[in-house]
Amino acid sequence: MKTQVYSRWDGSQQEFRLDAERALDALSELLMEGLDVREALEWMRQHGFELSGLDMRVMGLDELMAELRSEIQDLYDRFRMDSALDELRKKLDDLLDREQSALHDRHGYESARMNEFLERRHEATGLSDAIERFGDYDFEDGDAGEEFRELEEELERIRALERFLRERGERFRGNHPADYETAQQIRERIEALEQMGRDLAEGNLENLSPEQLSELLSEEAANSLVLLRDLESSLRQAGYLGEGEDSLTSRAIRRIGSQALAEIYGAVRKDRSGGHETDERGAALPRPDETKPFEFGDPLDLDVVRTLLNAVRRGARGFPISLRVDDFELRELDFSTHSTTVLLLDMSWSMSWGGRFAAAKRVALALDHLIRTRFPRDQYFVVGFSTRAREITIRELPEVTWDMGEPFTNLQEGLMLAERLIARYPSRSPQVLVVTDGQPTAYFRDGELRVEWPMGFGGVSPHAVAETMKQVRRITRRGVTINTFMLDDSPELLGFVEHMTQVNRGRAFYTDPAKLGSFLMVDYLNGRRKKSA
User: Fold this and answer.
1) Strand 481-486 relative to strand 507-510: parallel, antiparallel, unpaired?
2) Smallest Cα–Cα separation from 343: which of 300, 298, 385, 400?
3) I want to staple 440 with a disulfide (CB 3.0 to 4.6 A). Which of 245, 420, 431, 468 is the partner?
4) Three-state SS letters, 84-149
């Protein structure tokens, strides 16, 4: 018979602790999809999550429960239990036969002692009942009595196994007959697995032992339990969740923005080499990670360390180090300007399709982090629009989601809010970045909100388009550039955006969610350098 040996936790196994930064990365992925912090934490606990940078998946409660059920079912499928008590029954029968023979030899078959013995023996209805009935019996055969006391010491375990077999014996349909000890191990294992399942179902993770989980299931399950149990407390201790609150801290928002920027800006730099260059000159900031050889006419902004290293590599020895013009290494500069940027984020219901809203929100966070870290003089705002438009603070942004039940698109009010923000924070390079997947279908006229379904399949909403274009002309006269990123290629949207672009002389891009970040980041970095400070 195939057996498995499960050793107990001896303290030498690797201790897993949750990396709060990686947990926040996993949390942010769910926030991008529109869940709030509490919903995201519950999702992670229930369904598990990937730890970025590690070759490991944290199993969720559903997966742990499924593994528990699978382990129990495997035991049912491998073993059969119909002969589990046969060995002990035979042992009891043998010692009782010897006792009956001793009584016959000493007292005769018709004696009171024999009658008492036979009554106890024949009235027993099962193994444990027979053992109980002879619990106070004084054996004539000393050896039989000693063997009986050994059986009596097993009485509680025998009772437990009998109850277990009455309830579940028919479920065991495997090919491996289990003897008594194997049956007891299987019973204890299944009962432990079922108790563990109850604790998981009720969320009583503190009651669960990683050591026992490692024994009963796998080390991966044990590690996952530790990480799930410590998920929320680790995020709070790291300063990513407010104490006693289900809200992200400023530190968490900075981290999420930084990760979004690393993902998006990394793709821009890799895929769009040279896309950041400009011939216009304003205020210049050095790029700490990029240098270039000196060319005649360049300003002599030396990277001293790399210049000296060039001389040493060339063979210069001793002090002072002799430099040549060929050794000069200059720091690359970013020529930039102060800018006010408003990102108009379509929050209508259709943005929930195909990962559109998650991609747009990730870009919004990345832009915020880029501006606060690289361009701190810039002003940056996010305005969300569906049937109505509203400003969204960066603190709200990680948890904001599309407007359920709001199918209309009020770009006009979004542009109105953008105009007011730009007027409040003027700059020489104001710009509006519009991320949308549909043409305007809501608008204000004479202070009254109106909505307008498109006229027929593939049609437009003529009044909504006309009122929105009035606002486009108004904001264009203020010198504001509108760049539009379309997440759908429907003819009505393409036609509207083409018209808006002709009026404003901005630019329009059609892209999908996977490429939105690269397009928008390149446009922001280019657009903000149009005029020198």
Assistant:
1) parallel
2) 385
3) 468
4) CCHHHHHHHHHHHHHHHHHHHHHHCCCCHHHHHHHHHHHHCCCHHHHHHHCCCCCCCCHHHHHHHH
| Plot region of 447 (φ>0 → left; ψ -120 to 50 → alpha; else → beta) | left
Predicted TM-score (pTM) above 0.85: no
Radius of gyration of the chain (CA): 38
Residues of the chain within CATH 3.40.50.410 domain(s) are 340-527
pLDDT tens digits, one per residue of 169-194:
999 999 999 999 999 999 999 998 99
Tell me, rounded to whole angstroms, the distance of Cα 133 from its chain centroid. 60
How large is the average pLDDT for residues 399-404? 86
What token pair was written down for 325?
């013009």
Q: Is residue 20 classed exposed, middle or buried when 0-12, 13-18 and 19+ CB atoms within 10 A define those classes?
A: buried
Residue 123 structure tokens: 């009235």
- Do the Cβ atoms of 25 and 58 come closer than 8 Å? no
> Position of tokens 């002969």?
83
The alpha-helical segments, DSSP class H, found in 124-230 are 127-133, 142-153, 155-168, 180-202, 210-216, 219-229
CA distance 219 to 212: 10
CB 338 within 8 A of CB 377: yes
* 228 phi, psi to nearest 5 deg: -65, -45
In contact, 400 and 309? CB cutoff 8 Å: no
Which tokens sit at 4? 């498995």
Q: Tell me the sheet residues that pair with 391.
A: 383
Q: Are 349 and 313 in contact (CB under 8 A)?
A: no
- pLDDT by residue (tens digit) across 208-224? 877 877 788 878 888 88
CATH superfamily assigned to domain 340-527:
von Willebrand factor, type A domain (3.40.50.410)
DSSP 387: S
